[in-house]
Amino acid sequence: MRVGAARRLTDQFVHVGRQPIWNRDNELVGYELLFRSGERATSASQNGSGASSQVIVSAFTDFGLEQLLGRRLGFVNLTRDFLVGRLAVPFEPGLAVLEVLETVTVDDEVLAGVRALTELGYAIALDDFELGGGHERLLPLASYVKIEVADMDSALVTAAVEFCRQYPNLTLLAERLETDEDLCFARDLGFELFQGYLLGRPQVLSAAALSPTRLRRVELLGYLGRPDVDLDQITSIVLLDPALSYRILRATSSAAVGRRRPVSSVQEAIMVLGTTRLLQWLSLMAMSDLGASGEEHVVPILSRARMCQLLAERVGADAASAFTLGMLIGVGDLLATPMSELSAQLPLTEEVARALVDGGGKLGTVLAAVRAYERGTEPHPTEPAISGTELARAYLGGLDWAMRTYRAVLG
Fold first, then answer.
1. If exposure means fewest CB atoms within 10 Å of the residue's CB, which of 84, 257, 261, 374 is most exposed?
2. Cα end-to-end span (Å), the chain
3. Would you say 34 and 16 are in contact if contact means Cβ atoms under 8 Å apart?
4. How far apart (Å, rounded) are the C-alpha atoms in residues 329 and 2?
């Protein structure tokens, strides 16, 4: 069977819980993003850095932050590993509020880490705040404080609110509101924001996902752990994995919210992210991925991408853009996503987007020739002639390269 046979190659999905946050005017102003293991899950089946990593990766790359939040606030739970810098926060300040979980012990290391995050411009929220819990040291650095109301001693809640009012920088959020009485009590205390089952249970959203192979994940972690990490080597690994390539393009789009810059290739997306941000994203992706993609899934996509690359010079198109275009066609097949929708989610140059959506331009000419060869038909007569011999040579060359490369890396 030739490379381009249409088929659904993945049944893997990622899930994120999204609980609404409201203001005093009953306006929806944000969501807390929560780990969920399945579409029917009603609570987190795991906690810790792995859960936080999966939420971040899923939100920014599988869903897209704009799809999850629109222009509303997003709150993301962070563990100690993120706060002290053992795991990096891979997205720019201003895209999400970082929640310090109540289970984190606030020692000097955490205090220094949170101060460093605020100096970079990140907004901090303190989750489940209680007087005497040890998180008072973070109040001068925080922007939001979340205080539970349901089943709590009203005097203790009142005391916590009064204590926090000493810090004019704080916005107070009442959480775990389960009854009308809880809500009235919170409003009377002057809370600015409100969250709880009374106002909305977490909604689980699901999205189809592509997961890099386990061996690729291990290989990446090995490279990322080196003090002399080679960006060219990392780039070559990313280019050989359609899932990683797609996610890097999505991460570029998310990282560039407010200053979106079109890119024409995965290589260019990597340059836009920069070495530090790229390595941060790859570390989280490696940590969060649980599935695998076998040779029968990856080789056809790589083969088509290589075929497009080999034919690009024939029509004067950019080879890197042609490779990326061929890869994205395969990703669209895997996700069963229309090309127009896929293109809208990625920071692509006009030339690549046009070729992807309607087959226009020189890159579109390459793609049309490849598709025609895959179907066993002749390209449209108005297109620049690419001989059958050239197509066959490019097809065989692409397939041979994809198989040899895949097995050399993962075999």
1. 261
2. 22
3. yes
4. 15
Q: Where are the alpha helices (DSSP H) in 212-294?
A: 214-224, 231-239, 242-255, 266-288
Cβ-based neighbour number of residue 109 at 10 Å: 13
Q: Which of 108-112, 231-235, 257-261 has the lowest average pLDDT?
A: 257-261
CA 400 to chain centre: 32
- Residue 86, beta-bridge partner list: none
Q: What is the pLDDT of residues 338-359, one digit of tens each?
A: 888 888 877 788 898 899 999 8
Using CB atoms within 10 A of its CB, is residue 411 exposed (0-12), middle (13-18) or buried (19+)?
exposed
Total H helices, total E strands in the chain: 16, 9
Beta carbons within 8 Å of 236's beta carbon, 6+ residues apart: none
What type of residue sits at position 2?
A: R
Contact (Cβ atoms closer than 8 angstroms) between residue 323 and residue 304: no
C-alpha of 78 from chain center: 16
Residue tagged 């204590």 (tokens): 163
- Rounded Cα distance between 204 and 50, Å, is 18
* Burial status of residue 404 (CB atoms within 10 A of its CB: 0-12, 13-18, 19 or more): exposed
pLDDT in tens, 1-43: 233 333 344 446 778 889 999 999 999 999 998 876 545 444 4
Backbone conformation region of residue 139, classed left if phi is above 0, alpha if psi is from -120 to 50, else beta:
alpha
Q: Are 232 and 199 in contact (CB under 8 A)?
A: no
Chain mean position to CA 243: 12
d(CA 130, CA 143): 16
DSSP string, 309-353: HHHHHHHT--HHHHHHHHHHHHHHHHHT--HHHHHHTS-B-HHHH
Cross-strand bridge partners of residue 144: 125, 171
CA gyration radius for the chain? 24
* Cα–Cα distance, 269 to 252 (Å, whole number): 6
Distances 259 to 3, 255, 271 between C-alpha atoms, Å: 37, 9, 15
Q: Beta strands 193-194 and 97-100: pairing type? A: unpaired
How far, in Å, CA of 45 to CA of 36, rounded?
Answer: 7
Q: What average pLDDT is seen over the chain?
A: 80
**Distances from the Cα of 186 to the Cα of 4, 209, 289, angstroms:** 58, 40, 40
